[in-house]
Amino acid sequence: MYAQQIANIELPTQSAVHLDGALAQPVSFFPAGTEIYAQGEKAGPLYQVEFGAVRVYRLLADGRRQISAFHMAGETFGFEADATHHFFAEAINATGIRVVRIAAVADMSRQLLPLALKGLIRAQEHLLVLGRQNAIERVAAFLVDMTERQGGLRQVELPMSRLDIGDYLGLTIETVSRVFTRLKDKGVIRLLGLRSIEILKQDVLLDMGE
Amino acid sequence: MYAQQIANIELPTQSAVHLDGALAQPVSFFPAGTEIYAQGEKAGPLYQVEFGAVRVYRLLADGRRQISAFHMAGETFGFEADATHHFFAEAINATGIRVVRIAAVADMSRQLLPLALKGLIRAQEHLLVLGRQNAIERVAAFLVDMTERQGGLRQVELPMSRLDIGDYLGLTIETVSRVFTRLKDKGVIRLLGLRSIEILKQDVLLDMGE
DNA sequence: CGTTCAGTTGAACGATGTCAAGGAGGGTGG
DNA sequence: CCACCCTCCTTGACATCGTTCAACTGAACG
């Protein structure tokens, strides 16, 4: 429904492996919308985003989708508590992924723990957004997060669609769109393109998102 | 506002320390409503629940509260990505906590990683509940979770108030109450006491909580 | 036996979802 | 290079669910 199954191509690469002790791996290329792993599949390796963006999500039986996290260049994902994936992961757009096959995760736990903890904190903070913030606060928090992850520039590039944003923030696509319009009308942001946003009033955005 | 600052009493104890390599610690007693740690405090030790129950939460400036997790006997909490607590932790009712002071967290990462990953999965699954489920589904998911954590018995003891449940599920206390009534009227549950529930139709509850 | 606090219930409101139509941008083929 | 198409996005009207505000109930405790 959301994923396309397309064989991915391995690219030669020269960039360094970040995890010591792991098997060095080339970068795999995933076209937009392709599946990286699926719920129920056997887990094991970790995944490092070289370029592009990834969405990690779960589905309810009736098709409702919750994106639990977006992963951008430099980030590592794919952690599981047992040997099975509990989520789906897909490339949002053309994405390069380094698959890190780890001989024994336990042996590398020293390096892995900080990454897992970062993911934990992120997820718990997102719980506050989903549980207690209204639509405009959610979008503001999202935009603040995206700007921070892009180095705090005034201009933000959103790699994902409105649908993805909605499924991440627990909103419908229509509500996301209306909030964008409201922020635009208030002069808080300016839409340079559909997926390119300029922050005009960072302070306002900051204390909207809490 | 939510926490009372009451000095806690150390209890002698004979039960085993679960984490090898950590300093053995006695069990501290926290009366109902007392703070275990606060947001902004220096983090470091981990906490193991011996008996009782704990809520971990964040607050918004205007007092809105999101409980990110409940911790029951046997569970470990207090993980942080950096040296600072990003959340508050309080005893829900009379609770025994073993404070595990770890010389170097990195040295114990082999044991810690599985615990952190379990917390991560739990948080991510809760995101689905908060982002995409309606009131009755949220309460159903909560009840299923509580029964599973109490060994799958038909009778569930809820250590927390309706307010806590609401703040965990992103609902108001009134909505939680109304959903309980609806489940009771449907014959899915029976209220033995305010905080004691009998599950009459586990199957119905299960596929409500999806 | 009264007081208090947690929980329940009701009525009205409001935010967000749903359904439907219209618009804009990007890609493709003529 | 233009026209068309398809997808994504926006906007509007209305429905719905959950919140808010308020009153009431009941259990626990002195």
Automatic annotation (TrEMBL), chains A, B:
This protein's UniProt keywords: DNA-binding, Transcription, Transcription regulation
Segment forming the signal sequence: none
SMART domains, per database record: cNMP (SM00100), HTH_CRP (SM00419)
Pfam families: cNMP_binding, HTH_Crp_2
SUPFAM superfamilies (UniProt xref): cAMP-binding domain-like, Winged helix' DNA-binding domain
Domain annotation Cyclic nucleotide-binding: ranges: 30-78
Source organism, top-level taxon: Bacteria
Entries under CDD domains matching the protein: CAP_ED, HTH_CRP
Gene3D superfamilies cross-referenced by the UniProt entry: Jelly Rolls, Winged helix-like DNA-binding domain superfamily/Winged helix DNA-binding domain
Residue ranges annotated for the HTH crp-type domain, each copy included: 133-203
UniProt name for this protein: Helix-turn-helix domain-containing protein
